[in-house]
Amino acid sequence: MSFPTQILPAHHRHCDDLFVAAEEAAGRGDWTAATSAFEHFQTQMKAHFAAEEDLLFPAFEAAAGSGSGPTRVMRLEHEQMRPLLAQLEAACAARDGEDYAGIAETLLILMQQHNMKEENILYPMCDQALGPEAERIAARMSALLEQRRA
After folding, report:
1. Which residues contact 36 (CB under 8 A, 6 or more apart)?
2. 50-61: per-residue pLDDT in tens?
3. What is the pTM (predicted TM-score) of this model?
4. Looking at residue 91, which CATH number applies to its domain?
5. Domain region containing 121
6. Residue 1 has what DSSP assignment?
7. HSE on the CB side for 97, CA within 13 Å?
């Protein structure tokens, strides 16, 4: 059996590792490696957002009978992160280490806070609310994340 609480925290760690690789390469001034690592990180973040926004959140909202609870907050936080991803992409293109570091620090704080809320509050709520449906949703999320992992 597989549940959102098993799949998504592991993907958070995967994204964190990619983020660190991009940040380290930018810190060294290796912009070829930084750009490549950032592109991979950004692809994985977008896949993660899609897994949640397109699969998990709608299923949870249907089961809970509301879309105004924790999933609304998580969507708002995703919206806060998207412009930061665009700014990091621009900093890579400009080869601007100072900008990259400042934006990365802001994104890191947002991601850490966001992931804690999801892992400690939302995902367990999803597992419980979805019941037997949780396994089907988890399988679909896992397939989506694996498809974009290449």
Report:
1. none
2. 999 999 999 999
3. 0.92
4. 1.20.120.520
5. 4-147
6. -
7. 9
